[in-house]
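Course exercise 7: structure representation. Students receive a sequence record and must write out the corresponding structure in token form. The form below is the worked example handed out in class, using Protein arginine methyltransferase NDUFAF7 (449 residues). Read each field label carefully; the graders check that inputs and outputs are placed in the correct fields and that the protein name is recorded exactly as given.

STUDENT ID: A-19
EXERCISE PROTEIN: Protein arginine methyltransferase NDUFAF7
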Amino acid sequence: MASLALSFRKLSLFFCTTRVISCQESCAVLSRSFFSTHIVGEEPILVRDFIHSALYDANHGYFAQRSRSVGVMERSIKFNQLEGRKAYMRYLDKIYKQSDSSWFTPVELFKPWYAHGIAEAIMRTANLSVPLKIYEIGGGSGTCAKGIMDYIMLNAPTRVYNNMTYTSVEISPSLAEIQRQTVGEVRSHQSKFSVECRDAVDLSGWGEVKEQPCWVIMLEVLDNLPHDLIYSENQVSSWMEVWVEKQLDRESLVELYKPLQDPLIKRCVEIVNFNENDQAKSSLLSKAKGIWSRAFPKPRKCWLPTGCLNLLEVLHRVLPKMSLIASDFSYLPDVRIAGERAPLVSTKAHGSSSDYESYLDAKGDADIFFPTDFLLLEQIDHYCSGWLKLHGDKPKTGKKRRTIILDTSSFMEEFGLPSKTRLKDGYNPLLDDFKNTKFYLSVPTHNIK
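STUDENT ANSWER:
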């Protein structure tokens, strides 16, 4: 039986039925369409700025409007009591129908076991002789924070728990409050946990450089970071950066192409090219593609994780000794939007979900999320740490960071307790369903040259 290759957020789409849109709902959609054009003023803006506003605008953005976009389960699923996969899917169907949430994250579906696996990975790797300091970017409902702190309280030496601090950096005020309530259910956690309601990409929000070792956790964060888009008329033409501008009717948006000039885009293009060239060495397939592209030229589009590059540049600057755990989608099914690493733009209302054909249709009512190229993420991490120099004259023999990419199932088999999420017939949704997700672990080394 084929395992589900659906994203966590697409799980809700698995149970969708079509519906007729009422007049009231049509008016609501119309009002949101005006917001999409308000994102763009008289001057065009970069695609990343359009996406950032569509997701994070304080008044009209998706996460501002959907405080319940991230679901909170009242109780943990008792996996060992479910007969098998069909029973599990029926249970999920019931949960989604009872909830007004757009999706349940894996840390929520598999609580507390998912967070416990992350906590175990930290405990095995961290230097516990110094106070444990953890940052979580985009903490959702606070379930991960509570699960990690619970695990450390029960399994680490008492001094480790007593001296630890856990800081959530959360851009959404409503989610920040939910996190405080979730973690606050355990009184002893309260003095160790804090929420800073701000954008993690804003360098000024971090204050002074923090030289002490720490951990940074990012679960399903990379997929929602703004991306840029570049375009080429054919495979041999130069890349151009894509901007968004209002059409002459002022009520619709179109793309505008300009020569590469944005510094962040240019840095990201360099890293992407370095990554592709490194993989393509001595590759017959790459040479064949080059011949084919010259013979049959066609337009190209490529999505760049400039938001990820920007965030990692900030984190490496203010937390130079950080260790990183990130988990996200390695690919997305049924993407309709053109371009390499293209996003899924999906909305859900009254139990019905639909995907948009264009990212320009996102009007504050739609989630925009991207797959993560984990090999590219590794190169960005090395670049931001200062090790990967794209124009360096001397080759480097060592790396400043040790990195590893693991499938979710491999990560949980190594650090988690997969027996806790196994069904009676042996099926394990944590290991078997989420084939489109991976973990990225990155820790500093003593090699600083």
